[in-house]
């Protein structure tokens, strides 16, 4: 067969149709072919827009994958409108407004087709089409990998989305595809997305990873069912559900997620069965809003890499955990806000660094037949209206088993608290609670410790082997109202003296002051402030501007930055004094642009700047909220504005610091939602100009481009402060500071060796400045440890001196 020709084998039933012909173009061959004919394409590149409208077989030569290239200069390279078979082709698209492969009708089969394109979509299926797509690959860094739209369906088996500029697989408009053993990775949007009423996605044995966004995103009344799937290595949440979405995960694995492993909101419903969630940076399960619900059965949530609760339920949402394990996390379960509820049955909460169960702001939690082990606090009911039930649970190896404070009123029945370090049950600050048939054994403090005249009910409870006593009751002092204090019925203790009499007020105060484990605060949450823990000391006043400027002056280098910040501070301070004197004050725009390389102290200076403005009364709090593109930009229309508003609200009264802000306005923006974030931010800065200070930061050249293409943003900022790279002397000083802080010393000659090291160190675009200096110090400490570990009886000098030989090798 000649180069660039198409051989058509006619397979009609009539004898005169059983023949073979050759054609110079694919279009001519398709025109001549009838249903059932086989078109074998010779190796070559075909600059044609193919339209397959008959049930033919179109294939490349056997044994030569990729030898047939369909690559027109524009338009759709391959359109299928019939139940044809297409196999062994290499399709290239160049039209950003059109898909590379378009399937519009019929039940065609696509096998071993590779799509390499920069199109709106790699493969697009729409209308009544129901294709079977096997072993196909899509590489489309400009758009969607596979799009199934407008009621279409189909089965995709062993397919791979190698790269996508937007979602890897997008399902919209009532479409309902099925994915089997597919891989989706290196996408710039979500890995799998389904949106819109009647849209449905089913995936079995698939893997979604290396995603710059959410791994799976289901929104707008869409449904999805994932079985035996892996979702990992995303930059945003692992799984996102929003606006009446419904998702079922069975036998799935979600891991290595920097944000929430699973986040669901706005009446979404999630069912998890035999699914593991691990190595997540925020919440394992994050559940928000009335009507939102998650049901987890035989699931495991563990190995958090951040400082957030594993399961977070708030704003009226519901979570049910049945036969689950939650372990190796900072906090296990936090339930907040009136209407929020968590039901936990036959589950294990263990290896919890802080609080296993926290209930606050009027929420409810019910635990039945659960086991809590190795936690600082077993269960903490924090404030008025918060309550629920602990029924037939065991709490083992906690610092404190159950805490009830500030009017909370739980019911605890038939529970056993074994070996608490501080107290089995601690009730204070007007907490209530009813404890029936509960037992505390082996407490390092009291069994039941009730203070402040708290109106707690104890019935048929027992304590054994409690170091300080089985029961301790203390009122709130001499002015306590009559009739306050616990109600105790049929309670026993192994102490010969029985129940202890109420202690003097001083004893109660002393007991609180010696119980630091009871005072841990809630961790910070992205869009919902955590409820405060009970405080025993008044909040310390913020530092003066003079003190903060002193810390700024103590930073290594940054002389021009310090001058700029001082000039701004002086302007604001004098303006404040002029207003107090009844004079007009010059308007000072407080929003700033920070430019410079990584590690030059931009975040540190932003934090100090916020604290200075708070000390001058310009900002209410002065706290810093640091965000980047992934925190502001969503994957679908409308979500970006919501994310940006949430970040702005979190920064209210302080500083919103947007790192790498230029990423919101990429040079090749296309359909990027970064512009929506910028537009939302500009409006918020105008509407709430006195509530938040915004600082945008990034590389110098990129920030100059960012401001030039967004004049609306540029006009909102008063000045640009440039952070220069650190010189060898500055880097040496940072190492010296680190050494002093960690009680090390530089031996004779080590400082000179460090200076030479930093002089010769390559300083390309990825040079980390201060971060590099700290990493160098850490490397020296590691090498020092390896050296000193071999010394049998090291001296103080051995343990503290860092030598030139401890320096790492130059890269």
From TrEMBL:
Signal peptide: none
One Pfam family per UniProt: AAA_lid_6
Organism listed in the record: Streptomyces violaceus (Streptomyces venezuelae)
Lineage, opening ranks: Bacteria, Bacillati, Actinomycetota, Actinomycetes, Kitasatosporales
Region (Disordered): 477-505, 521-542
Keywords: ATP-binding, Nucleotide-binding, Repeat
Domain Carbohydrate-binding/sugar hydrolysis: 41-172, 313-474
Keyword Membrane tagged: no
Family, similarity comment: Belongs to the CbxX/CfxQ family.
All residue ranges annotated as the AAA+ ATPase domain in the record: 588-727
Matching InterPro entries: AAA+_ATPase, AAA_lid_6, ATPase_AAA_core, Beta_helix, Carb-bd_sugar_hydrolysis-dom, CbxX/CfxQ, CbxX/CfxQ_RuBisCO_ESX, P-loop_NTPase
PANTHER family linked to this entry: AAA-TYPE ATPASE FAMILY PROTEIN / ANKYRIN REPEAT FAMILY PROTEIN (PTHR43392), AAA-TYPE ATPASE FAMILY PROTEIN _ ANKYRIN REPEAT FAMILY PROTEIN (PTHR43392:SF2)
Descriptive protein name: Right-handed parallel beta-helix repeat-containing protein
Origin superkingdom: Bacteria
